[in-house]
Specification:
Blueprint: E1 2-9, E2 12-19, E3 25-29, E4 35-43, E5 46-49, H1 57-62, E6 69-71, E7 77-78, E8 82-85, E9 88-91, E10 102-103, E11 113-119, E12 123-133, E13 142-152, E14 155-164, E15 170-172, E16 175-177, E17 179-180, E18 190-192, E19 197-201, E20 207-213, E21 221-222, E22 229-233, E23 238-246, E24 251-259, E25 266-270, E26 278-283, H2 289-292, E27 297-299, E28 304-313
Antiparallel strand pairs: 1-2, 2-3, 3-4, 4-5, 6-16, 7-10, 8-9, 11-12, 12-13, 13-14, 14-28, 15-27, 17-26, 18-21, 18-23, 19-20, 19-22, 22-25, 23-24, 24-28, 25-26
């Protein structure tokens, strides 16, 4: 059996989806961008808190690492916040001041509405939505974003839809920004990536035109002292899976993403300075896709983007 309960999280309401049989649960804050603050999964008799999320509402509101955030309607950076689409040039708010870029969309702190809550024998799920209507001059388009979060015996899943509700084409990219963790330094963990090629970035973390062979983690390899802030290309289609393995726990955290036409064909991987977690971000496009077009999705009026990703433990 599965249950859903809600409790206060500072000024917000936190929804907790729980597997009553295993003790697994996930915590979601619809009123703050649909942020995922906690995910606890079970292997055998052990429960693992697999996300490095924000523990308090104050941390969440002050967070600039985008822990657990939804990145809509663009993931990663748009150079100088400027882009040209169908002959018109637009200026987005620059929120990454040190590099002068627009970063990670603008819904990460917006209030999503509750559409449906489901408690059942096989899963618990919550569906939320946000309607955007040209509020930002640099993005004069309209869309309806929908997210369905579900917890089942197969793990945690997010199913995303974004529908163009306007009368003109709209540019779009999307991603999720979880930090995976075993609550210990990542140096002793093993990483396995579903990619053997990465994108060469310049000093401002904007892609160049160069792609390089990067097979460091194409087979499972110890992270050690490796520094990662890289964008990888997913090429095979189907379900792409990234694995983080702890020898000490004999346990693997896996994050999967749908790839293929119009899906999650890129993967951002980043180890923050504290080195106690690793961001593994399913994304639909390259960084700066609004300018370079790599992976950019153009939704026609009435057209809907649909894709899923999730996390499980083994």
């Amino acid at each position: 059996m599965f249950s859903i309960r809600n409790e206060l999280f500072g000024p917000f309401e936190k929804y907790i989806l729980r597997n009553l049989h295993t003790g697994e649960y996930v915590s979601i804050i619809p009123a703050f961008g649909g942020n995922v603050t906690e995910l606890v999964l079970r292997k055998k008799e052990n429960l693992y808190s697999v996300l490095d999320g924000n523990k308090t509402a104050q941390d969440l509101m002050e967070d600039n690492a985008y822990k657990g955030a939804q990145l809509i309607p663009f993931a990663s950076r748009i150079e100088n916040g400027t882009y040209t689409f169908q002959g018109k040039t637009y200026q987005l708010p620059v929120n990454e001041k040190e590099r002068n870029h627009a970063l990670h969309g603008f819904l990460n702190n917006k209030k999503f509405n509750i559409v449906k809550v489901t408690e059942g024998t096989n899963l618990a799920s919550i569906e939320v939505s946000f309607a955007y209507n040209k509020e930002i001059p640099g993005y004069p388009f309209s869309f309806l974003a929908g997210l369905v979060y579900s917890l089942s015996d197969k793990g945690f899943k997010i199913e995303t839809t974004v529908k163009n509700t306007g009368v003109s084409d709209m540019p779009f990219s999307y991603g999720w920004h979880p930090y995976l963790t075993f609550s210990k330094p990542v140096d002793d963990l093993y990483l396995h990536l579903p990619s053997r090629r990465s994108i060469v970035l310049n000093k401002r973390l904007i892609p160049t035109d160069k792609i390089k062979e990067d097979q460091r983690f194409y087979k499972p390899a110890k992270i050690g002292s490796t520094q990662l802030d890289n964008s990888f290309i997913i090429e095979n289609g189907g379900i792409a899976k990234t694995e983080l393995y702890s020898v000490q726990d004999d346990t693997t955290i896996s994050i999967w993403q749908e790839s293929g036409a119009g899906k999650f064909n890129y993967l951002q991987v980043y180890i923050p300075p504290g080195r106690r977690s690793i961001a593994v971000e399913p994304v639909t496009s390259q960084t700066n896709a609004y300018n370079n077009g790599k992976g950019l999705i153009v939704l026609k009026p009435g057209e809907t983007f649909h894709a899923s990703y999730g996390v499980f433990i083994s």
